[in-house]
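Changelog-linked ticket: zinc ion example.
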Amino acid sequence: MILKIDHLGIAVKSIEETVKFYTEALGLQLDHIEEVEDQMVRVAMIPIGESKFELLEPTCPESPIAATIEKRGEGVAHLALTVDNIEEALAQAKAAGCRLIDETPRIGAGGSKIAFIHPKSGYGVLVELCEQHNHI
Ligand code: ZN
């Protein structure tokens, strides 16, 4: 079951530069910055209500986010949805004929289990399914 919008992933060249817009211009608070080696990104989490902005900065040219910035420039990279059971959500998307980028979940920021649905199936939106590490 999908519970809410977890976060918006935003591809940026520099977290240090971009974070000022969210904190100084919009008045939001930076929660933390972490590195997700598996995806070759540094991630800044900025809570907004029950959701978050996730700024994604590539740590090397081979990073998928570097490719996204190269192709489309900086901006919204994906929409992430909180699910209570990621294996079930993936099975449902697959049964509905979606093209999955991840057939099985991998570990994302904060230790969450994540999996991506291809933007071809999401009508132009790269959708991330996200099962929180710590259920509330
Ligand atoms: Zn994300």
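Closing comment: Example verified and attached. The CA atoms of residues 103 and 127 lie 14 Å apart. The beta strands are 2-11, 32-36, 41-48, 51-58, 75-83, 106-107, 113-117, 127-131.
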